[in-house]
């Protein structure tokens, strides 16, 4: 099985989950730089945020590639961030009970938010009736 | 490198911006899930993003994302280039400068709809 740190005992320097995590931060980080900046440009620059309404989302999500883009962004950002949170917890929490509580909460939250985001993207309906999409801008 | 000088500040800023972005992400996943309730509920939910205070918070988020990303690149250069460590302080300054420079156009586009002074110089791409 994959070797995961116990928080005590001898420390091996190669392999294991921590090494994967170290590489994951860097690989996901590079991908995220591009994906997040593009996301910020689409949401704030090319469109004013007052016009990012349901209609705006619906027109984007008519193209399934935008749904895929958002899902990859969700997955990478959530894993990158939650892995970071795990490391922050490791740095400041040393008692076994508190570690168990906080790290397992982190894991559960990761899964819960991932499921919520995935369900939102998958179940968003294709716009069959353009009149039902609401306003183009809030004002 | 690490006690009270650029190395420590860059580590601290990286951690603080990271946690800040994560907190925003969790809120964001919830507000986007409002899409499941239809246009009326979703449009009402995102109306809060139009408020000036929230626009300023969005701007802070943009600054955090830019710094966290560029400092991350700095970290990778330190990790993967054998002479990277020698330039760590310089790269920290570069990361800060690029963050500020990259932040300015976002500031313009995000604040432009709500600040009259910026609106009179309407050379924007929007609408």
Summarize the structure in short.
The complex is a heterodimer of chains A (139) and B (127). Chain A is 68% helix and 0% strand.
Silhouette of chain B:
elongated
Oligomeric state as shown: heterodimer
CATH fold annotation of chain A: 3 helical TM bundles of succinate and fumarate reductases
| Strand residue percentage of chain A | under 5%
What is the chain-wise order of helices and strands of chain A? HHHH
Would you mind describing this structure in some detail?
The complex is a heterodimer of chains A (139) and B (127). Chain A is mainly α. Chain A is built from 4 helices and no strands. The longest helix of chain A is centred in the first third of the chain and has 30 residues. The radius of gyration of chain A is 20 Å and the shape is elongated. The model of chain A has no long low-confidence stretch (mean pLDDT 91). Chain B has 127 residues and is an all-alpha fold. Chain B is elongated. Chain B starts with 5 loop residues before the first helix and ends in an 8-residue tail after the last helix. Chain B is built from 5 helices and no strands. Chain B is 73% helix and 0% strand.
